[in-house]
Protein: mitogen-activated protein kinase kinase
Organism: Sesamum indicum
Amino acid sequence: MAIVRDRRHLNLRLPLPEASEHRPRFPLPLPSSTTTTNTSAAATTAISSADLEKIHVLGHGNGGTVYKVRHKHTSAIYALKVIHGDSDPAVRRQVLREVSILRLTDSPHVIKCHGVFDIPGGDIAICMEYMDMGTLETLLRDGVVFTERLLAKICLQVLSGLQYLHSHKIIHRDLKPSNILVDQNMQVKISDFGVSKIMQRTLDPCNSYVGTCAYMSPERFDQDTYGANYDGYAGDIWSLGLAVLELYLGHFPYLPPGERPDWSTLMCAICFGEPPTLPESASENFRSFIECCLQKDWSKRWSATQLLSHPFFSNVEDLKSV
């Protein structure tokens, strides 16, 4: 089995964008998703730090602080992620990676970036779309019951986002409930692209341990068994399956309720144990959907496009009212 490195180790292979006042920091966006609506004038207007006023703190972590902010002139609400100037260089590299990818994408199921700017003192600020209900992890922690119907609505949107990302050769590599944002209408968007990867070639290697170990697929741990040139897109599908199962069960699938994960225990369970399954009370279509996501052999795992046509979504029209 491959040597397991610390989960915080970063193996960033892409060249990082270079900030310069004489050249654009970001490339042109990718074509929009077919379901994308027209971007509003407010979203396309350049935003500066002077335009925003802080309302309150939404959260802390990973070298920065996220604020709920208001545009002084339009009253539009945004989320402002501020990465502190004294943060670990690896964190700042992740931020630059995330910004580069966000400015490349245009999908209703991927969080939008409305601007990025330097703040005196060395801080970097990213102005993003605000989602008023936080994350799926927040809802789970607050006691929300995720029924099959609700999860079908969520999955349909996440898979649409993954299909868009994968079709543009972007692998998320850290999909989990805390990285899926949600609003009061249960519209969800994929966020946090700090460890994502843009595939340069068809067989571009994905052999790195970035991301959150609990949601990593078996091939990302054990490259001796699966090889270094596995399909990185399949890793996102595994992560989605675990996240959905966690929401349904109310706790992380590989652990009993209330037990904290242990790195080595999780690694052995994911690599050598059987994938977790749904209880018998779950519908046949739901069990089948989870099985299609949690195939240990990545070559048997369904793609995002295939999963969008899974019978789990057969009553898709009814989901609009969930």
